[in-house]
Amino acid sequence: MATWILEPGHTEAEFRARHMMVTWVRGLFKDIRGRLELDWDRYLDATFEGEIDATGIWTGEPQRDEHLRSADFFDVEKHPGITFSGRFTERTGDTAFKGEVAVTIRGVTRTVPLDVLYLGEWKTPWWDGNENKGEMRRIGFEATARIDRHDFGVSWQDELPRGGVVVSNEIELTLDVEAILLEDLERTGAIDYYMSSPRER
Fold first, then answer.
1. What angle do CA 131, 133, 134 make, to 5 degrees?
2. pTM (two decimals)
3. How far is the first Cα of the chain from the last one, in angstroms, to the nearest whole number?
4. Chain-centre distance of CA 141, in angstroms?
5. Burial of 102 (C-beta count, 10 Å sphere; 0-12/13-18/19+)
6. For residue 96, what is the enclosing H or E element?
7. Which residue, 173, 183, 190, 196, is CA-closest to 86?
8. Ordered per-residue pLDDT tens for the chain, 201 residues
Protein backbone atom coordinates (compact mmCIF):
# COMPACT_ATOMS: atom_id res chain seq x y z
CA MET A 1 0.00 0.00 0.00
CA ALA A 2 1.22 3.49 -0.84
CA THR A 3 0.86 6.16 1.84
CA TRP A 4 -0.57 9.54 0.89
CA ILE A 5 -0.53 12.49 3.29
CA LEU A 6 -3.52 14.84 3.35
CA GLU A 7 -2.40 18.30 2.26
CA PRO A 8 -3.93 20.56 4.94
CA GLY A 9 -3.87 23.74 2.87
CA HIS A 10 -6.13 22.23 0.20
CA THR A 11 -8.17 19.74 2.21
CA GLU A 12 -11.36 20.97 3.80
CA ALA A 13 -14.66 19.79 5.26
CA GLU A 14 -17.73 21.84 4.42
CA PHE A 15 -21.10 21.47 6.12
CA ARG A 16 -24.44 23.07 5.50
CA ALA A 17 -27.58 23.23 7.64
CA ARG A 18 -31.00 24.73 7.06
CA HIS A 19 -31.54 27.97 8.97
CA MET A 20 -34.96 29.23 10.07
CA MET A 21 -36.61 26.69 7.73
CA VAL A 22 -35.88 28.78 4.61
CA THR A 23 -32.18 28.93 3.68
CA TRP A 24 -28.75 27.34 4.13
CA VAL A 25 -25.86 28.25 6.40
CA ARG A 26 -22.49 26.88 5.33
CA GLY A 27 -19.34 26.42 7.35
CA LEU A 28 -15.80 25.15 6.88
CA PHE A 29 -13.11 23.27 8.75
CA LYS A 30 -9.69 23.85 7.14
CA ASP A 31 -6.97 22.39 9.37
CA ILE A 32 -7.29 18.68 8.56
CA ARG A 33 -4.39 16.27 9.13
CA GLY A 34 -4.35 12.64 8.08
CA ARG A 35 -3.27 9.93 5.69
CA LEU A 36 -4.60 7.57 3.06
CA GLU A 37 -3.31 4.05 2.41
CA LEU A 38 -4.14 3.20 -1.20
CA ASP A 39 -3.18 0.61 -3.81
CA TRP A 40 -5.31 0.78 -6.96
CA ASP A 41 -4.83 -2.96 -7.53
CA ARG A 42 -6.49 -3.55 -4.14
CA TYR A 43 -8.66 -0.45 -3.80
CA LEU A 44 -11.14 -2.11 -1.42
CA ASP A 45 -8.27 -2.49 1.05
CA ALA A 46 -7.77 1.29 1.06
CA THR A 47 -8.06 3.01 4.45
CA PHE A 48 -7.90 6.63 5.59
CA GLU A 49 -7.77 8.44 8.92
CA GLY A 50 -7.25 11.90 10.30
CA GLU A 51 -8.24 14.71 12.62
CA ILE A 52 -10.03 18.01 12.08
CA ASP A 53 -9.27 21.05 14.22
CA ALA A 54 -12.77 21.90 15.45
CA THR A 55 -11.57 25.15 17.04
CA GLY A 56 -11.04 26.62 13.58
CA ILE A 57 -14.66 26.40 12.49
CA TRP A 58 -15.59 29.25 10.14
CA THR A 59 -19.00 30.34 8.86
CA GLY A 60 -18.17 33.96 8.04
CA GLU A 61 -19.98 35.34 11.08
CA PRO A 62 -17.81 35.58 14.24
CA GLN A 63 -20.69 35.55 16.74
CA ARG A 64 -22.12 32.42 15.13
CA ASP A 65 -18.68 30.79 15.08
CA GLU A 66 -18.31 31.38 18.82
CA HIS A 67 -21.73 29.84 19.45
CA LEU A 68 -20.74 26.79 17.37
CA ARG A 69 -17.54 26.41 19.42
CA SER A 70 -19.55 26.49 22.67
CA ALA A 71 -21.02 23.58 24.61
CA ASP A 72 -24.30 24.09 22.71
CA PHE A 73 -22.64 22.63 19.62
CA PHE A 74 -19.04 21.34 19.25
CA ASP A 75 -17.84 22.12 22.79
CA VAL A 76 -14.29 22.68 21.55
CA GLU A 77 -12.95 23.44 25.02
CA LYS A 78 -13.48 19.78 25.91
CA HIS A 79 -13.36 18.32 22.39
CA PRO A 80 -11.00 20.37 20.20
CA GLY A 81 -10.66 17.68 17.55
CA ILE A 82 -13.01 15.72 15.30
CA THR A 83 -11.45 12.38 14.34
CA PHE A 84 -12.30 10.05 11.49
CA SER A 85 -11.20 6.69 10.07
CA GLY A 86 -12.72 4.84 7.16
CA ARG A 87 -12.44 2.66 4.10
CA PHE A 88 -13.80 2.07 0.63
CA THR A 89 -16.57 -0.55 0.50
CA GLU A 90 -17.61 -0.70 -3.16
CA ARG A 91 -16.64 0.59 -6.57
CA THR A 92 -19.71 1.94 -8.34
CA GLY A 93 -18.08 3.45 -11.46
CA ASP A 94 -14.75 4.25 -13.10
CA THR A 95 -14.09 7.01 -10.57
CA ALA A 96 -16.90 6.49 -8.04
CA PHE A 97 -16.91 4.54 -4.79
CA LYS A 98 -19.00 3.86 -1.74
CA GLY A 99 -17.26 4.12 1.60
CA GLU A 100 -17.86 4.29 5.31
CA VAL A 101 -16.19 6.39 7.96
CA ALA A 102 -16.25 6.29 11.76
CA VAL A 103 -16.55 9.91 12.90
CA THR A 104 -16.03 11.06 16.49
CA ILE A 105 -17.59 14.38 17.53
CA ARG A 106 -17.84 15.46 21.17
CA GLY A 107 -16.53 12.02 22.17
CA VAL A 108 -19.36 10.21 20.35
CA THR A 109 -18.47 7.86 17.49
CA ARG A 110 -20.87 6.91 14.70
CA THR A 111 -20.32 5.17 11.36
CA VAL A 112 -21.40 7.26 8.39
CA PRO A 113 -21.83 6.08 4.75
CA LEU A 114 -19.94 8.05 2.10
CA ASP A 115 -20.22 8.66 -1.61
CA VAL A 116 -16.66 9.14 -2.93
CA LEU A 117 -15.50 10.54 -6.25
CA TYR A 118 -11.87 10.22 -7.40
CA LEU A 119 -10.77 13.45 -9.11
CA GLY A 120 -7.46 12.32 -10.55
CA GLU A 121 -3.67 12.41 -10.13
CA TRP A 122 -1.13 15.01 -11.24
CA LYS A 123 2.62 15.54 -10.93
CA THR A 124 3.66 18.95 -9.62
CA PRO A 125 7.07 20.55 -8.88
CA TRP A 126 8.23 21.35 -5.35
CA TRP A 127 10.08 24.65 -5.15
CA ASP A 128 12.39 25.49 -2.25
CA GLY A 129 13.12 29.15 -2.87
CA ASN A 130 14.24 29.28 -6.51
CA GLU A 131 15.26 25.62 -6.67
CA ASN A 132 12.98 22.90 -8.04
CA LYS A 133 13.54 19.91 -5.75
CA GLY A 134 11.60 17.49 -7.95
CA GLU A 135 8.12 16.27 -8.70
CA MET A 136 5.42 15.30 -6.22
CA ARG A 137 2.39 13.20 -7.11
CA ARG A 138 -0.94 14.55 -5.88
CA ILE A 139 -4.37 12.91 -5.91
CA GLY A 140 -7.80 14.31 -5.15
CA PHE A 141 -11.13 13.02 -3.86
CA GLU A 142 -14.52 14.46 -3.05
CA ALA A 143 -16.73 12.70 -0.50
CA THR A 144 -20.28 13.55 0.51
CA ALA A 145 -22.48 12.40 3.38
CA ARG A 146 -25.52 13.29 5.48
CA ILE A 147 -25.69 13.01 9.25
CA ASP A 148 -28.17 13.71 12.01
CA ARG A 149 -26.31 16.05 14.34
CA HIS A 150 -28.24 14.76 17.35
CA ASP A 151 -26.52 11.37 16.88
CA PHE A 152 -23.32 13.13 18.04
CA GLY A 153 -24.83 15.14 20.88
CA VAL A 154 -24.83 18.37 18.87
CA SER A 155 -28.35 19.08 20.00
CA TRP A 156 -28.94 22.78 20.68
CA GLN A 157 -32.24 23.90 19.20
CA ASP A 158 -34.73 26.73 19.37
CA GLU A 159 -38.29 26.47 18.15
CA LEU A 160 -40.20 28.70 15.76
CA PRO A 161 -43.96 29.22 15.49
CA ARG A 162 -46.02 26.52 13.72
CA GLY A 163 -43.51 23.75 14.46
CA GLY A 164 -40.43 25.26 12.83
CA VAL A 165 -36.85 25.05 14.11
CA VAL A 166 -33.87 27.37 13.93
CA VAL A 167 -31.32 24.68 12.84
CA SER A 168 -32.07 21.55 10.84
CA ASN A 169 -31.34 18.18 12.36
CA GLU A 170 -29.87 16.82 9.11
CA ILE A 171 -26.47 18.20 8.11
CA GLU A 172 -24.97 17.79 4.64
CA LEU A 173 -21.21 17.26 4.49
CA THR A 174 -18.65 17.58 1.69
CA LEU A 175 -15.01 16.62 2.18
CA ASP A 176 -12.51 17.85 -0.42
CA VAL A 177 -9.21 16.02 -0.17
CA GLU A 178 -5.83 16.67 -1.76
CA ALA A 179 -3.12 14.17 -0.82
CA ILE A 180 0.58 13.90 -1.67
CA LEU A 181 2.55 10.69 -1.92
CA LEU A 182 4.64 10.30 1.23
CA GLU A 183 7.56 8.91 -0.77
CA ASP A 184 7.69 12.13 -2.83
CA LEU A 185 7.43 14.34 0.26
CA GLU A 186 10.45 12.60 1.74
CA ARG A 187 12.46 12.60 -1.51
CA THR A 188 11.97 16.32 -2.20
CA GLY A 189 12.39 17.43 1.40
CA ALA A 190 8.86 18.88 1.48
CA ILE A 191 7.88 16.59 4.34
CA ASP A 192 8.71 19.15 7.06
CA TYR A 193 6.56 21.82 5.43
CA TYR A 194 3.49 19.67 4.91
CA MET A 195 3.68 17.87 8.26
CA SER A 196 4.12 21.04 10.34
CA SER A 197 1.27 23.17 11.66
CA PRO A 198 0.69 26.58 10.03
CA ARG A 199 2.02 28.29 13.18
CA GLU A 200 5.34 26.44 12.81
CA ARG A 201 5.97 27.49 9.19
1. 130
2. 0.90
3. 30
4. 11
5. middle
6. strand 96-105
7. 173
8. 999 999 988 999 999 998 766 688 999 999 999 999 999 889 899 999 999 999 999 999 999 999 999 999 999 999 999 999 999 999 999 999 999 999 999 999 999 999 999 999 999 999 988 999 999 999 999 999 999 999 999 987 766 666 666 678 899 999 999 999 999 999 999 998 887 654 444
